Amino acid sequence: MTVLPTALDPRGPEYAAHREAMLAKLAELDAEHAKALAGGGEKYVERHRKRGKLLARERIELLLDPDSPFLELSPLAAWGSDYPVGASIVTGIGVVEGVECLITANDPTVRGGASNPWTLRKALRANEIAYANRLPCISLVESGGADLPSQKEIFIPGGALFRDLTRLSAAGIPTIAVVFGNSTAGGAYVPGMSDHTVMIKERSKVFLGGPPLVRMATGEESDDESLGGAEMHARVSGLADHYAVDEADAIHRARRIVARLNHRKAHPDPAPAEPPKYDPDELLGIVPGDLKIPFDPREVIARIVDGSDFDEFKPLYGPSLTTGWASLHGYPVGILANAQGVLFSAESQKAAQFIQLANQRDIPLVFLHNTTGYMVGKEYEQGGIIKHGAMMINAVSNSKVPHLSVLMGASYGAGHYGMCGRAYDPRFLFAWPSAKSAVMGPQQLAGVLSIVARASAAAKGRPYDDEGDAALRAMVEQQIESESLPMFLSGRLYDDGVIDPRDTRTVLGLCLSAIHTAPVEGARGGFGVFRM
After folding, report:
1. Helix, strand or coil for residue 513?
2. N or C: which end of the chain has fewer CB within 10 A?
3. 368 within 8 A of 341, measured Cβ to Cβ
């Protein structure tokens, strides 16, 4: 075995300072996650319980196999917007009857489970994950449909939800809907387009138009039960495949549907793997509070891969990018991790070759971000940094093996793209609370604007307002800093969640297991033209 050594001193002052800074960020993160867990607040939670109903996460808990994990996705969706944190829906991956499934659950304590623009984006991201990884989809439905004041942002793109359900089914990926309450208007198509539908006696209400709309449109008088109740759909319309007596029965029936799916993983589960040699708790003290200070990503790798065993590729060439082979929870992975922040030509070429090798061997890639981008300056431009950076981005863009990205520290500029940022369709992307991502660092961006403004004033022969410049730079730095933070980016679904560094191995392991439900095949050729 090639066990990575460690130079980390858990008793040193630097480690203590880094750990303290990380714990402070985690405390802030916990406070924001608590907002999502609170749903619509105590008043609406209590009202929901008085109706004899379970909360969204309680339904999920009953659905899952006992003591099995649930990887919640995008819990901070809508953070920083006018809508509640969590976007009134819970999404994630869990195991039901031994089968890994993508689960979505409306939170009816938030405006009756109505969908806002962030609900839509979160649900579409969940469907994307299900499709790419061939995960059966279970929808736990209780929603009044679109949040009408924001319909202009929901109606047109919202049709993609129904399109996704039909495409999943056409691809042989099972879809199951369990209706706990309202599923009206466009929402009626969720059970209507699912392979299997469960409805609950005197609870489920599924219709394109409720009694008030029917009265307005046709003059017909009707009631909820005859128009769209569970018994009517079970006996008359045939929309309900299973008629449950209560919520627990409905969840039991959903579990039995999954048990009979005959849905198999493309790859068998790997054998139990040896844990890392070093304590994962030490991950809290590796990343400096000041991201200008470099850190050795091997210290992170040593605490997340099996047995801390890592075979490094080209260790002496392009040293500011660490590349190599390892296993994680028994699954083979190739790892690319930024060491000193800046990517030079050598690092870019090294990455392109390594990505091609992973595709030859059908091995998923893990990208650990801490990069300020590609190097700038006359020497590097003349040395071909553009064409070499383009080579790396080309390789990432056309790679076919699954990609997993974790933003540990900085992820700026085109380096974010080369390391498989959101726009490059990683199967999953997570961030640590220490991460920051933007076109460039706040000070650099503010400084560039200042230089351009100063040059413009000089060209026009006007005096430059240094006091105004200082105020502008401070304002821009503050804005870019706030927009670079992980909670801001996670709120916009630019990642799949902000995670505790100590959970990185577990999260990546759950993702790798989900990924291996589908075939893992690399590109054989098929890359764009590499400029040499």
Report:
1. helix
2. C
3. no
Indicate if 280-435+498-515 has the same CATH topology as 25-259: yes
The pair of three-digit structure tokens given for residue 250, joined into one six-digit string: 């409905």
Q: What is the mean pLDDT of the chain?
A: 92
Share of the chain above pLDDT 90, in %: 74
Which residues, in sequence order, are CB contacts of 396 under 8 Å at separation 6+?
351, 355, 403, 417, 418, 419, 420, 424
Topology (CATH) of 280-435+498-515: 2-enoyl-CoA Hydratase; Chain A, domain 1 (3.90.226)
| Phi, psi values for residue 403, rounded to 5° | -115, 140
Under 8 Å CB-to-CB from 468, ≥6 apart: which residues? none
Q: Kind of pairing, strands 428-431 and 373-374?
A: unpaired
Residue 434 contacts by C-beta under 8 Å, 6 or more apart in sequence? 21, 22, 25, 287, 289, 291, 408, 409, 501
Whole-Å CA distances, 229 to 200, 204, 212, 278, 406: 9, 6, 15, 57, 46
* Number of residues in the chain: 532
- 458-475: per-residue pLDDT in tens? 888 888 888 787 887 888
pLDDT exceeds cutoff 80 at 186: no
**Pairing assessment for the beta strands 331-338 and 311-313 based on DSSP bridges:** unpaired
**According to the model, what pLDDT value does residue 508 have?**
98
How is residue 6 written in tokens? 């460690």
Collapsing DSSP to helix, strand or coil, 506 comes out as: helix
pLDDT tens track for 246-302: 999 999 999 999 999 999 999 988 988 999 999 999 999 999 988 888 899 999 999
Mean pLDDT of 130-140: 98
Residue 426: both structure tokens together? 């990683």
Report helix, strand or coil for 297: helix
179 within 8 A of 197, measured Cβ to Cβ:
yes
Please give the model's pTM, rounded to 2 decimal places.
0.93
- Give the mean pLDDT of 188-206: 95
Confidence band, pLDDT 50/70/90 cuts, at residue 208 = confident
> 25-259 belongs to which CATH class?
alpha beta
| Tokens, residue 462 | 């006007």
Angle of CA points 91, 79, 294, to nearest 5°: 95
Q: Are the CB atoms for 42 and 456 separated by under 8 Å?
A: no
For residue 471, what are the contacts with CB-CB under 8 A and spacing of at least 6?
A: none
Could you state, in order of their start, the residue ranges of all structural domains in the chain?
Answer: 25-259, 280-435+498-515, 440-484
Band of pLDDT at residue 452, cut at 50, 70 and 90 = confident
State the DSSP H helix or E strand holding residue 149, giving kind and residue range, or none if neither: none
Check if the beta carbon of residue 377 is closer than 8 Å to that of residue 384. Answer: no
Is 207 exposed, middle or buried, given 0-12, 13-18 or 19+ CB atoms closer than 10 A? Answer: buried
